[in-house]
């Protein structure tokens, strides 16, 4: 089985990509790349999860996104030749395939279908960034928390039914995602548990009613 078998076409079983990649393993909490790094490599997540983050001059962490198996990062620096715009940190044990800028650009040149894939990926990320800016400006903290719980559900499954988030999401990390504090997250999660929308056991946060979360935040589940 090839290392990129878990990816969708056109990356799956791409011989040139397989030959160009070097493979690296990271533990949870380990920095994969920093926004001050000078390399322009592209990273393909073969297993595990990472968070995209940056830090303000005062040291405050600003959360941007979370990516899992089958996703990539580093393409913008490789294509533009400009500096990194964020840091990437492994959330859990993570294995990546690393492709140099020159090899990646050569693959784009020889494979129009991968060039189209790249455009689609970047458009999707731009759309996500636009949605997040809208949420920060227009929605209250409780509503932003509900949206983020829905996003965590989507990382687990595309189904609309009951979803188990295991382990229980870290409230401090969840607060960074929605530009809030831990106490606000704890308060809203407790409120949703009392309403029967969520349920907690020792290991998991169980989302019982995604439809309620979607309707109260005007999010389309499809």
The name of the CATH superfamily of the largest domain reads Jelly Rolls
The first-to-last residue Cα distance is 32 Å
CATH class of the largest domain: Mainly Beta
Return the average pLDDT rounded to an integer: 89
Report the total helices. Answer: 8
Helix content: 40-55%
Give the biggest sheet.
4 strands, antiparallel
Q: Beta fraction of the residues?
A: 15-25%
General description of the model:
The protein is built from 8 helices and 11 strands. With 222 residues, it is an alpha+beta fold. It has 2 domains: 15-136, Sandwich (Jelly Rolls), CATH 2.60.120; 140-215, Orthogonal Bundle (Arc Repressor Mutant, subunit A). A hairpin with a 5-residue loop joins strand 4 and strand 5 (61-68). The longest helix is centred in the middle third of the chain and has 27 residues, at 112-138.
Summarize the model shown.
The protein is α+β, with helices and mostly antiparallel strands. It has helices at residues 15-20, 75-80, 101-110, 112-138, 141-156, 171-177, 182-194, 210-217; strands at 22-26, 31-33, 42-47, 49-55, 61-68, 72-73, 87-90, 94-99, 163-165, 198-200, 205-207.
Write the layout of secondary structure elements.
Layout: H1 15-20, E1 22-26, E2 31-33, E3 42-47, E4 49-55, E5 61-68, E6 72-73, H2 75-80, E7 87-90, E8 94-99, H3 101-110, H4 112-138, H5 141-156, E9 163-165, H6 171-177, H7 182-194, E10 198-200, E11 205-207, H8 210-217
Antiparallel strand pairs: 1-8, 2-7, 3-6, 3-8, 4-5, 4-7, 9-11, 10-11
Helix pairs in contact: 3-4, 5-7, 5-8, 6-7
């Amino acid at each position: 089985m090839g290392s990129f078998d878990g990816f969708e076409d056109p990356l799956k079983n791409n011989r040139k990509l397989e030959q160009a990649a070097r493979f690296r393993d990271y533990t949870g909490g380990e920095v994969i790349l920093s926004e001050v790094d000078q390399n322009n490599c592209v990273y393909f997540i073969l297993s595990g999860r990472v968070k995209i983050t940056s830090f303000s001059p005062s040291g405050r962490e600003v959360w941007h996104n979370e990516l899992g198996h089958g996703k990539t990062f580093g393409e913008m620096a490789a294509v533009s030749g400009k500096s990194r715009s964020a840091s990437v940190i492994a959330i859990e044990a993570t294995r990546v395939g690393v492709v140099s800028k020159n090899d990646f650009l050569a693959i784009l040149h020889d494979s129009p279908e991968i060039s189209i894939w790249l455009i689609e990926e970047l458009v999707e990320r731009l759309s996500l960034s636009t949605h997040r800016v809208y949420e920060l400006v227009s929605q209250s903290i409780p509503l932003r928390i509900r949206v983020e719980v829905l996003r965590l559900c989507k990382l687990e499954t595309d189904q609309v039914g009951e979803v188990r988030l295991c382990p229980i999401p870290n409230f401090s990390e969840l607060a960074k995602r929605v530009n809030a504090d831990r106490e606000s997250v704890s308060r809203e999660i407790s409120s949703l548990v009392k309403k029967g929308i969520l349920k907690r056991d020792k290991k998991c946060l169980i989302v019982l009613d995604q439809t309620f979360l979607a309707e109260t935040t005007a999010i389309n589940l499809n």
